[in-house]
Amino acid sequence: MRKIIYIVSLGLFALLFQSCNPAFEIRQDSNLAYIYNPGRATIHPRYKVYHENDNQSTLFVKVYPVELLFNMANPEGVYMAELGIHYRLYDLTVGRIVVDSGFVKYPVMMRNVKKEFIASIQIKAEKGHIYNLEVIVRDILRNKAVQEFIPVDKTSEYNRQNFIVVDHKSRVRIFNPIVDSTSVLSILYPKKEIDTLYMRYFKDKSKLPLPPSFIIPTGSMDLKPDSIWSIPYSDSLILKFPMQGVYQVGIFPDRPEGYSFICFGEYFPSVKTSEEMIKPLAYLATQSEVRRLLSDPNPKLAVDNFWLKSTSNIETARELIRIYYNRVFYANYFFASYIEGWKTERGMIYIVYGPPDEVYKNDEEEKWVYGTKRSSPKISFTFRKVNNPFTQNDFKLRRNAETKTMWEQAVTSWRSGKTFEINQIKE
Prior knowledge:
This protein is of the alpha+beta class. It contains 6 helices and 19 strands.
């Protein structure tokens, strides 16, 4: 996730076509479950929006050429892939109408690219408006596409989409706000002349979400920083992140607005240490069990014994460990916000129930559905998007006393040595 970005000049690709092409559309009511299923999505683009001025913004899309299909079936007879990007900009301020759309096609020649290819597309976004940008990135030769919805906020010239972050040494654009203690970055604010930026630091005070069967009141975020310090601004400004937590860089010391960096530790999103393996067990174990595991003099052996207690078969225990911590990894990868992905409510559901069978998204919500067989029950979870000053990836579970969650049944299945599969349950 923290690869050094190699920006390819678009001047290398003079061949660039623009048109509206219905063949590249994906209906908004279509099942997007592939986006959270590592085995089904073949490409994993990264996105970033930057506001150039009051009337125009730029969408940057980063793809990894190693994920594209290359062949020599072209007039040049060279290894080349074809990347298509379809976009549609919805203005939410005036009632969700399409105000800009288009399709851009890029030939990606293997000899000209290394680790990453970055495309930039100008979009017509007006000051004072809030938008939702639908983006569909397609590997044309493989005929595979992924869809994403990106919030575009032009109500403030001080929010995250007005800053440019680059690697301090290579000066290439950074897409991922997740950093670690080895990261050395620079931040640019080209909007106006400034001489000072302010760093607001927040420790991680998050608590694990309660099971989905619990009805709990909606809480508010604590936006009081643990510390604030000023930074002399220059093009060569150096940012480092020695402690875990959230670092928000902004123009004002007292306003929770700016570009946020989130530091989760050296190995994130991977699970490497015994402590990192024990904490996600809180979804299956009691609080006292987790405390005993954390205080055990040999925590790695304690984790192994936890799983062995669920089954007397060593191979089965190993398979349970593999599945569970793969889910923890992908929960971190997909759902990280201002807290680790496995600590989020989407992460909790993903770890215990697995990738959803159906996913439907709109401007405000995601709906997950589990169960495909007619003879089996179906359960669904709806997550609403939260306005968060640190991230655009914060969603909360809509809790309802009438919602069927089968949580206890799912946990019992894991503790009995079986992954929970709703399709194996008869109604």
